[in-house]
């Protein structure tokens, strides 16, 4: 879980959408999915909470103009994000469910599942815009806040993470990835973790506080 450490407990510097779809979605407005390529071995299939790696281009349905291309950002590397938790617009969360590595899709997303009546001026998306995305999925990994990850840290099995348990986990991860860090890095990260996750201030991170994806197993 080397890469999982950063994604597990620290803020995700990923594709967080700056706006969300407005409420009152009409039942008739759904995401339209066209599968462009499906690998013979289509496994694993993506589900809520999985960590995905993908490239995609975004177009306005009205005139076909491109407003987004992941290949022009981050030195052309595919985007990492967690599926189904609002890190992308709702339409993309829906469109990329049950998708496998190597699969390509073309999806059409109505305004109510994209940027709604307000649009997104910074992204050159006008109000009430229907969006089209061409998506290529590269990887489906277990999400950073999975049940397995929680149980790995929760050494005493009491369904809450103490400062000592997380401290030990950080030390193990630091030793595993072998990167040089400032001596203060451990304490700074530990403090940041509790600041952002210990919502009730009781000195523990409960299963509910940790597990933002609300797995029933916890």
Automatic annotation (TrEMBL):
It is an enzyme of class 5 (isomerase). It catalyses: [protein]-peptidylproline (omega=180) = [protein]-peptidylproline (omega=0). Keywords: Calcium, Endoplasmic reticulum, Glycoprotein, Isomerase, Metal-binding, Repeat, Rotamase, Signal. PANTHER family: PEPTIDYL-PROLYL CIS-TRANS ISOMERASE FKBP7 (PTHR46222:SF2), PEPTIDYL-PROLYL CIS-TRANS ISOMERASE FKBP7/14 (PTHR46222). Its EC number is 5.2.1.8. Residues 49-141 form the PPIase FKBP-type domain. This is peptidylprolyl isomerase. Pfam families: EF-hand_7 (PF13499), FKBP_C (PF00254). InterPro entries: EF-hand-dom_pair, EF_Hand_1_Ca_BS, EF_hand_dom, PPIase_dom_sf, PPIase_FKBP, PPIase_FKBP_dom. Residues 1-21 form the signal peptide. Residues 141-176, 185-218 form the EF-hand domain. GO terms for molecular function: calcium ion binding; peptidyl-prolyl cis-trans isomerase activity. One of its GO terms (cellular component) is endoplasmic reticulum. It comes from the Eukaryota.
């Amino acid at each position: 879980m080397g890469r999982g450490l950063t994604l597990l407990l620290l803020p995700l510097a990923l594709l967080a959408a700056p706006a969300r779809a407005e409420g009152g979605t009409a039942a008739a407005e759904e995401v339209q999915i066209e599968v462009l390529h499906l690998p013979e071995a289509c496994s694993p299939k993506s589900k809520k909470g999985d960590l995905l790696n993908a490239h995609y281009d975004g177009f306005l349905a009205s005139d076909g103009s491109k407003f987004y291309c992941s290949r022009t950002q981050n030195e052309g590397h595919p985007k990492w994000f967690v599926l189904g938790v609002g890190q992308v617009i709702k339409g993309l969360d829906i469109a990329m469910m049950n998708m496998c590595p190597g699969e390509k899709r073309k999806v059409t997303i109505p305004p109510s599942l994209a940027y709604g009546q307000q649009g997104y001026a910074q992204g050159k998306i006008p109000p009430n815009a229907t969006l089209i995305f061409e998506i290529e999925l590269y990887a489906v990994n277990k999400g950073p806040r999975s049940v397995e990850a929680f149980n790995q840290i929760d050494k005493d099995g009491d369904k809450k993470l103490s400062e000592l348990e997380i401290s030990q986990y950080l030390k193990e991860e630091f030793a595993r990835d072998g990167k040089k860090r400032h001596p203060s890095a451990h304490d700074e990260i530990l403090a940041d973790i509790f600041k952002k996750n210990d919502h009730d201030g009781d000195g523990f991170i409960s299963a509910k506080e940790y597990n933002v994806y609300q797995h029933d197993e916890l």
